[in-house]
Amino acid sequence: MDLATQPLSEKSRDAYYWRLLATAASFALFGLGGLCLRLVIFPVLNCLPGDPQTHRMRARRTVSRCFWFFVRFMARAGVLTYDIQGAEKLGRPGQMIIANHPSLIDVVFLIGLVRHTNCVVKQGLWENPFTRGPLRSTEYISNDGSMDMLDAAADALKSGQTLIIFPEGTRTQPGQSPAFHRGAASIALRGAKILTPVTIKVNPSTLTKAEAWYRIPKRRVHFSFHVGADIDPQAFAACGPAPQASRKLNDYLHSYYIKELAEDERSTP
Fold first, then answer.
1. What is the pLDDT at residue 5?
2. pTM of the predicted protein model
3. Which of 49, 62, 71, 107 shows its CA 20 to 30 Å from the CA of 201?
4. Quick one: fold of 13-267?
């Protein structure tokens, strides 16, 4: 299944001041939406019947739908366009989804696509008043770098959950290749049934660590997502002790993304 927005005219891509206004509106909507989820939606959901797992899945489904609404809002407002190749391969039990991290809203896209997914999110979001409540209700995993985090992620996969993780741990520095931490490879070896890479390309670059939200590019941004072939983590588990297997898998993933992103760059007009 391929998802895509409609192509744009040159004139619409250059609507700079409209896009700046729409970008500000998008960030305001995201912040207000987070507060609404925390103060209104989740308190109501928590009053509904069900066991803890039912409440967790209900919360994740709600966040996913809100995120996808946010993506569609940005697309319809003219902030961005996108295409997604292979979305039907995402969301399987015990699947670990990894992705490079070129922009701030990559996680919004992926969680919006996968309705019931778990996700490893950065620690700072747990102190953010706009995101703290939703994160607690969804029981996403805090990326605090501890062994408890690795255990929680591996246990989630073993229990049949889908897990999204960005092995870089933070957004890619503009103009540099992604550098993966071995924690993601270790989690995959310990708990994942399948490992599925997603390559994300953003053109022109936006919402990187070096760019404030209001420094929008001169033309509309296009996000491209390509879901790659599944990887069997156990093929690397046979390479030796856990640290050695983790290193080999991490090196493989790093090489994979360098190749995929290089091909993307060569195909860009």
1. 60
2. 0.89
3. 62
4. Glycerol-3-phosphate (1)-acyltransferase (3.40.1130)
